[in-house]
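Worked example

This section walks through a single chain of length 337. The input is the sequence exactly as stored; nothing has been trimmed or padded.
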Amino acid sequence: MQNTGKLPAVRGLAAAALAFGLAAPPAIAQEEFILAHAMNTDHVFHAISERFMEELGDDSGVSIAYHPGGDLGDWVSLFEQSMQGVVPMTLTWASSDFDKRLDLIYLGYIVSDWDEAKQLYGPGAGMLDVYNDMLADLGIHAVGIIPTDFGSVVIRKGVGELPVNFPDDPAGMKIRVPGLSIAVDRFNDFGFAAVPIPLSEVHTALQLGTVDARSFSTAVETYTLRDVLEANILTNDYFEVAFWLVNKSWWDGLPDDVRANLQAAADETIAWSWEEAERKSDEFLQKAREAGINVVELSDDQMNAAKRIVYENEWPMMESVVGKDIIDRIRSVVGIE
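Given that input, the structure is written out below as tokens.
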């Protein structure tokens, strides 16, 4: 439901009615706001946004200006614009530039499959309250947690190597990581040379050989980069979830009925999104194979070696940031001691 300009039309009708001495039609209260995200229309963010607007329908009392594809900024910028209230609603990832505790959402090997992911992050799972306690300090609120996909390592064309035994195989291979300390530390621990590069510059960096690999690549992003990639190694080192964020002051100031309608539509959409996200993961991984990308699964020994590095290095560090209670809660779900 894009912003269709209905309000000016209503005002024009009222003016015409008055000019002919007729009673003006009752005013239609509309809440107009921006919904934006940084991903292209192949991404699950777009499917979620469209589904959300369909769930709202035409009589919801809102008019949405929808901006996909990053035309209002990248994911970090949109996180900040939500804090400022410039973009009242966005689908984006946690930016620990503003609160170090938000790195919790990038914790490695927190879940191993989609069922475990839904148990931790799905509707009613409780992690939403944990994150909202942190987000409230930044003036934002998450109406839900959005599943995206498992993240893996991709290798650019021409490298001809498959680093699957960590930390020995990478041997200093340059790998793009997002600008997050937890990502830098993880891939340095895995044996790579981690290079923080903005998402918008990843394609060029791989094309020019600035880096030989990229981390945090979901299936749809792997397919998007297919022209510069030769392999996708399914490290599945983290499960990517995003926040459905709103500016807290804006959200709290909405009429109760409008806020309730928005939350109900978001809840329905998020419940649907779990199936859709898994379907898109399978679909785009198969598309990557068909495009000639070598999709490699780690053996049990190789996966266990990677997990051991993360559990021994990353988890204790995260516990010192967010506290033992939260980490113990996650451990009980994941089933590790």
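What to look for: The first strand starts at residue 31 and ends at 37.
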